[in-house]
Design goal:
Layout: H1 2-7, H2 13-77, H3 80-83, H4 87-97, E1 103-108, E2 114-117, H5 132-141, E3 145-146, E4 150-151, E5 158-165, E6 173-179, H6 180-183, E7 197-201, E8 207-211, E9 234-237, E10 246-252, E11 259-265, H7 272-315, H8 328-379, H9 383-406, E12 412-413, H10 414-422, E13 432-435, E14 440-441, H11 443-462, E15 472-482, E16 485-497, H12 510-522, E17 526-532, E18 535-543
Parallel strand pairs: 13-15
Antiparallel strand pairs: 1-2, 1-6, 3-5, 4-5, 5-6, 7-8, 7-11, 9-10, 10-11, 12-14, 15-16, 16-18, 17-18
Helix pairs in contact: 2-7, 7-8, 8-9, 9-10, 9-11, 10-11, 11-12
């Protein structure tokens, strides 16, 4: 109570309305601010994902180029001229095949001495190749490798090699070399946002080729502060100190020692103006809301006082007339209070009637329960048997009472009565077929028919068709008309088939009394029970008027 008083102290309705206006406005502002932050975060996440994908796409392009060069080396390595040691013919054939490409082939021995170079005519004196380290690495690994970018001795330009080691002599390795500038034709910033750059980086961290406004030349060392962070197969690098307001995506070229990187400014629309508009508009909205709440509070306060005065006079026992206010709902309350002052006596009479009905129905239920226990006590051979029998019957009676209570003792549809009592036997529900046109039963008929149904189903589960999986029961009702009885009649039929052979019991138990004598007396009708070999047959014929609610 102290906590409630702390948060909701005594105050006028005007104070609470103003507080409500502020309490509504502030969460809205906070939510909008959260949405703006979430939007900014989503934009950045999308940009990161796209940056990593662009770097991966570039790596695939470079990978195709390197793979093409590796395939060319494999084909050249198996040429007959090379196998026969005819280097002159091999030079001529290779030069002709690669004339339209920007690729050149070198054949070197184990020391790195060039045996031929398609950049020069065959027979031209050639020295050692420029990148001995790349040759040694390829010879050691025994697989095709791409070198770092370096200055070529023959061309004088920045080039790179793809080396195929061979176990034969004198040609120990075949090398395809290409100018870095020619590879640059594959590296483009087309499709990237303005201000973005792209580059290919070799194993030592030098730029092989680059494109974009960064204008990095081949052989330029890439930022050494960034390189250690590019340790995964692909990803995104962010650092507000190294790359302020920028983003970098990278991807390792599969099977090679190179990486591709793209980087550029984070192009997000500024939301400063949106924040400014939100703050100014929010303050103005709160002021308007406070003024409106104060004006409404004055009107509501007057209305509440008028309604409170009506309620006070009504509480004193007076008949009150409705007051006229500017609030429609308050007028409705005033009319309701006025009507309530006239209806008070009728309500008291109705309460007395309900109490009388409650006493009457309670007596009937107690009488029925007493009769039930007397009958069961005569047949029970032990306290446990008596308790189980009473509990089972009371459960069936309780289902009927629960149904009637849910309908305020105004009657229940026949279908619901059947369903609620058969729910007590869920394992046998699919074995029972129900047929008949639904109608609403009287309260007494709900109890009595429910008792009969519960006994029939209980007996069938214990001894009859529902005691075996193949057994079937059909429960139906239909209108009949007899010549000597002009009133409408109903005939209920319970037929069992497919169960164990039926034997008529030697003595009459409580169950038989309920489904025969009690049912016939309750509905002022007749009950026929046949213990046929193929299954029990129970037929109740009664006047429809004793069952159906008017």
């Amino acid at each position: 109570m102290k906590i409630v008083t702390l948060f909701f102290p005594k105050a006028s309705i005007g104070t609470y309305l103003v507080a409500m206006a502020v309490a509504i406005a502030l969460p809205i502002f906070a939510f909008v601010a959260l949405l703006l932050l979430q939007l900014e975060d989503n934009q950045r996440s999308t940009l990161k994902r796209e940056t990593a994908q662009d770097a991966l796409a570039l790596s695939r392009i470079i990978d195709r180029q390197l793979q093409d060069m590796a395939t060319t080396l494999r084909l050249l390595s198996s040429s007959p001229e090379l196998e026969n040691g005819d280097l002159a013919s091999f030079h001529e054939r290779t030069e002709t095949a690669l004339r339209n490409n920007s690729l050149y082939v070198l054949a070197v021995d184990r020391t790195g001495h060039q045996l031929l170079n398609t950049r020069r005519p065959f027979g031209t004196p050639l020295g050692q190749m420029a990148n001995i380290a790349a040759l040694d690495a390829a010879m050691k690994s025994g697989r095709i490798e791409a070198s770092d970018v370096f200055r070529g001795k023959t061309s004088g330009d920045w080039v790179y090699n793809v080396t195929l080691p061979r176990a034969d002599d004198p040609v120990a390795a075949l090398i395809i070399t290409q100018d870095a500038g020619d590879l640059g034709k594959l590296v483009t910033t087309q499709g990237l946002a303005p201000g973005w750059s792209a580059a290919v980086i070799d194993q030592s961290g030098h730029v092989v080729v680059a494109a974009g406004p960064a204008a990095l030349e081949p052989g330029t060392p890439f930022d050494p502060r960034i390189l250690p962070a590019l340790s995964f197969a692909r990803g995104v690098f962010e650092d507000r100190t190294i790359l302020p307001h920028m983003l970098l995506g990278y991807a390792q070229i599969p099977g090679w020692s190179w990486k591709t990187v793209i980087w550029g400014p984070v192009a997000q629309a500024s939301i400063l103006s949106t924040w400014r508009f939100l703050i100014i508009g929010g303050v103005a909205l709160v002021l308007v809301a406070v003024l409106a709440a104060y004006a409404v509070a004055r009107q509501v306060r007057t209305t509440i006082r008028d309604i409170a005065d009506m309620a006070k006079r009504m509480g004193d026992g007076h008949i009150v007339s409705p007051v006229e206010t500017s609030v429609i709902e308050a007028n409705q309350v005033a009319i309701a209070l006025s009507n309530a002052s006239f209806d008070r006596s009728q309500t008291e009479d109705r309460l007395r009637f309900v109490m009388h009905e409650l006493v009457h129905r309670t007596k009937n239920l107690l009488t029925l329960a007493q009769a039930m226990m007397r009958q069961l006590a005569k047949q029970a051979d032990s306290v446990e048997t008596f308790q189980a029998a009473v509990a089972d019957r009371l459960d069936g009676l309780g289902r009927s009472i629960e149904l009637l209570t849910s309908e305020q003792w105004g009657g229940v549809s026949l279908r619901r009565v059947v369903d609620i009592h058969l729910q007590a036997f869920p394992q046998s529900r699919e074995q029972i077929e129900i047929a008949g046109e639904d109608f609403v039963l009287k309260p007494d008929a709900v109890q009595n028919l429910g008792l009969a149904l519960h006994e029939l189903a209980t007996n069938s589960v214990k001894y009859g068709a529902l005691s075996v999986p193949q057994g079937r029961v059909r429960f139906e009702w239909r209108d009949v008309r007899e010549a000597d009885k002009p009133d409408a009649l109903l005939r209920f039929t319970w037929e069992e088939r497919g169960g164990p052979p039926v034997v008529e019991p030697s003595r009459t138990g409580f169950g038989t009394t309920v489904i025969k004598a009690h049912a016939a007396a309750a509905f002022r009708g007749t009950v026929e029970i046949d213990f046929l070999p193929e299954g029990l047959s129970w037929v109740l014929t009664a006047q429809r008027a004793t069952l159906e609610r008017d």
